[in-house]
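Sample entry (260 residues):
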Amino acid sequence: QCCSSLSSQLLFRSKMLDYLTEWVWGSEATTCLEGIAYLSSACLSTLITKLVGIAIIAGACLNKAPIISGMLETKSSAGFSPGTMYGEVIMYSNSAFYSILKGIPISAWGENGIMTLQSILMVFLLWKYSSPPLTNGQKLTAVVAYACYVFVAFRVLSEDQYYLLQAANWPALLYSRGLMILQTYKDKHTGNQSIFTHGTNFIGTLIRVFTTLKEVGWDLPILSGYALSMCLNSTLIVEYFAFRKNTEKFRASLKEKKKE
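Predicted structure, serialized as tokens:
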């Protein structure tokens, strides 16, 4: 029994090693594994790309945490509008769904799936703290519209139409981030927006350009979306610092109202 148990453990580890090496290096797994002590530049760059991708996915888990925390603390959705948040959900969903449908490795897009879930959570918080409050009819319309969108993406679009998901990201991105930029300029404060979120979005997108080139190649629908995202995120970062003092005063006033 002892030998049988040991043999099973070794077999399991061997299969896990085979799976991991194939996931990292694909068809070159055997070659790279045999030279593991002296990895070639191609094997090493692929390994680093995978590790960076995993790091970005892990970092995405905390991306919107400061915003969610701020909304819960102030009980306010200041800095965000329904249009902004709905656009965010569609934008991240487009990228995640496109990658799933195209069979792109999760290490190249996993953060978009996580950001989709976080954006949906923020929509619920927006519904709870929005002033004036949204009606149940407005909320139901949003839920039905998103359900129809998911159905169309996975059941209606043919393979040669998948690019439409990424093509739709341009207007979704311009709409959501554009509204946020305009709202911030109008209010002269950033509300519950977070420099951590804007900063990690910018840096993560920049890194994603290089990992996409390495793992996917010149996929222009994806790369053009990243370029636009970097431009809009840089604008949000500039606004954050430009209206920083006003934002501090605004958040202080919200905390005072909360005490009352």
